[in-house]
Write a structure and sequence with these properties.
The structure holds 2 protein chains of 2 kinds. Chain A is mainly beta. Chain A is built from 1 helix and 6 strands; from the N terminus they run ββββββα. The chains are: A mainly beta, B alpha+beta.
């Protein structure tokens, strides 16, 4: 990952999210002052750099309603918080 | 990386038995219910010396993911349980883990991490309190058993491998399946992170309301002496009415990243503190001494592990593209 062309951290795991319809990852940032909302460039498996946004985790269902059974049905396509 | 292996990945596949060199297979043990996955031509990886299906050559990953989000799915995992038993089991675990173990009641589970003295995270997993003096620590991939044995010196405990295999039933219909497969019906109380002992097809089975998908779900633990096929066949028979299918790690992996569930050895390892890994809330300063406490009290408590969304992320033809 890069910010303004300088190394900014790395992707530790990644996938494609059918729910969010976007590439998703867990990342470790070199600079602890960066966080959710920060814009980075990420090197993807297509060999190209793509713009990406640092986000809080979980990427959705932040209150944990789904595993607790408080909300059993959630639409598949949800806006990214 | 050599150009010869740049576009190559290595997997384990089921083939007709060839015999020979069987001792090399001790680090790639199959789950007792693996036969349920074989029709889908799985590619396996190694997790805790056990086979874990990574993907299916026959099957559309996105459709399996949708079933997990909307119905119910079954995963046969490589999670590894270690049993800690004896009068000082709680004391040992309270020394090894960063959260209070004394507060975990019998019949409850607790997500627990352990650190080295320098504050680096060794392992994460679910601690199940089966009795006052009896626990299972169901860990992620990596070596932890030796560390626990070494820490147990001087404590009146036994630390051993109970030979348990773990599977997960996950998805919004998962508790309906449980109510149908449990000989006794749904346990009277089975809240998030509860543990219960039930029978399936007459076989005794420990279950916990946990998982690795952040969906509604439960896990079941197959102990030695239990007829795993009687249990597995009953769950699949009932689950089929709800669209249940087995699922490889490629499916659960997308969901656990969305859910912010970390993968030991990848998303954290012994080179990062719980704070850096985003697990700082699991460091309990109110409890007594634990391994790593002194180093963590001096550590930078800022977080460096986050999620990422990448709208232009590459999507492979098989539907599991990545950033």
């Amino acid at each position: 990952m890069f910010v303004d062309g300088a190394p900014a951290g790395r992707v530790t795991s990644s996938a494609f999210s059918p729910t969010l319809q976007t590439g998703i990852a867990i990342v470790r940032l070199n600079d602890a002052d960066l966080g959710p909302g920060s814009q980075v460039e990420v090197s993807c498996t297509d060999g190209k750099l793509h713009s990406a946004q640092v986000s809080d985790l979980p990427l959705f269902d932040r209150a944990g309603d789904l595993p607790r059974g408080r909300e059993l049905r959630q639409p598949m396509a949800e806006p990214i918080a | 990386m050599s150009d010869h292996t740049k576009n190559v990945q290595f997997v384990v596949k089921a083939v007709s038995s060839t015999g020979g060199a069987s001792e090399f297979r001790q680090s790639m043990k199959p789950h007792p219910l693996v036969y349920q996955e074989l029709p889908h031509d799985p590619h396996f990886g190694i997790y805790n010396g056990r086979l874990r299906s990574l993907s299916y050559a026959k099957g559309d990953m996105e459709s399996l993911y949708r079933r997990l989000r909307q119905q119910v799915m079954l995963a046969h995992t490589g999670e590894l349980a270690t049993e800690i038993r004896g009068p000082e089991a709680e004391a040992l675990l309270d020394r090894v883990f960063t959260r209070s173990v004394a507060k975990v009641r019998v019949g409850r589970c607790s997500y627990q991490i352990a650190c080295y003295p320098d504050g680096g995270v060794i392992m994460d997993g679910v601690l199940v309190r089966l009795a006052t003096d009896r626990f299972w620590y169901v860990q992620s991939d990596g070596e932890f058993y030796g560390w626990l044995r070494a820490q147990a010196q001087g404590f009146d405990v036994e630390v051993f491998d109970p030979g348990v295999w773990v599977s997960q039933v996950q998805g919004p219909r998962s508790l309906e399946v449980l109510s149908m497969v449990a000989d006794e019906g749904l346990p009277e109380s089975f809240n998030y992170f509860d543990q219960a002992k039930i029978h399936i097809n007459g076989e005794p089975v420990v279950i916990t309301r946990t998982g690795f998908t952040n969906e509604l779900g439960w896990e079941f633990y197959l102990e030695p002496g239990v007829d795993a096929q009687l249990v597995g066949d009953r769950i699949m028979e009932v689950g089929s009415a709800y669209g249940m299918h087995t699922m490889p790690a490629e499916v659960t992996n997308a969901r656990r990243i969305e859910g912010g569930l970390l993968f030991a050895g990848a998303d954290f390892d012994e080179t990062v503190t719980p704070f850096e890994a985003g697990l700082g809330s699991l460091v309990d300063w109110e409890k007594g001494e634990f391994v790593g406490r002194a180093a963590l009290s001096q550590a930078d408590q800022r977080r460096r592990t986050w999620g990422l969304t990448c709208a232009g992320g590459y999507r492979t033809p098989r539907g599991h593209g990545v950033c």
